[in-house]
Write a sequence for this structure.
């Protein structure tokens, strides 16, 4: 009998995955983490150094920025689900290439199918362009986009706010706006 898909199974499959070259340089693959019935899924680019060391997404400096923005908007990691388009760290944190992105895509698709969030928050240019073919996050941040029965919210990557305090404020405002948009969607249903 075919086992039904669960986040746990995806996690196991990611941890042992060897579908692309990144498996040869990673220390740990980094599956998504969080609430199976989350209304919001955050999608980053790829694990960095700390994530690779510990096998958990967004636990370094960028993760701290994300946590701060979540808290500021009245959310915690327990309310949401956090993942990446590519689950293994690219060497020297380079941008993942098209092969890596397409090999890894089924994991994100499966995560989204199981969780079926009300909003998917895309963090930064790589994610925005990979998933929606968009560019110029500075012009498009804070926007809602609907595509193929899914609702996306576009914002900066939290890493972009580390040395830019102004952008940090913009990012925090975006995350608040995201929570407002979620409330609107919930009231419509
Ligand atoms: N940056 C990302 O895009 N994802 C992580 O998990 C950590 C840093
Ligand atoms: Fe597998 Fe994705 Fe890691 Fe490549 S990046 S080895 S496809 S989990």
């Amino acid at each position: 009998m075919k086992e039904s898909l669960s986040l746990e199974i995806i996690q196991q499959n990611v941890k042992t995955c060897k579908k692309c070259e990144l498996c040869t340089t990673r220390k740990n693959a980094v599956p998504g983490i969080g609430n199976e019935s989350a209304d919001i899924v955050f999608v980053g680019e790829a694990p960095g150094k700390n994530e690779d060391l510990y096998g958990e997404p967004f636990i370094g400096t960028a993760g701290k920025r994300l946590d701060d923005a979540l808290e500021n908007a009245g959310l915690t990691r327990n309310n949401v689900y956090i993942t990446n388009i590519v689950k293994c760290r690219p060497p020297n944190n380079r941008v993942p290439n098209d092969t890596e992105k397409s090999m890894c895509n089924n994991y994100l698709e499966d995560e989204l199918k199981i969780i079926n969030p009300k909003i998917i928050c895309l963090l930064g240019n790589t994610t925005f362009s990979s998933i929606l073919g968009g560019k110029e996050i500075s012009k498009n941040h804070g926007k809602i986009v609907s595509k193929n029965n899914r609702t996306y919210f576009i914002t900066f990557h939290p890493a972009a706010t580390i040395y830019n305090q102004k952008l940090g404020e913009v990012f925090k405002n975006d995350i608040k706006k995201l929570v407002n948009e979620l409330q609107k969607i919930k009231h419509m249903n």
The chain has one domain: 7-188. Helices lie at 7-15, 49-54, 61-72, 98-115, 125-132, 137-140, 165-188. The two ends are 36 Å apart (CA to CA). Residues 14, 17-20, 22-23, 29, 86-88, 100, 103-104 surround iron/sulfur cluster (ligand 2) (CB under 6 Å).
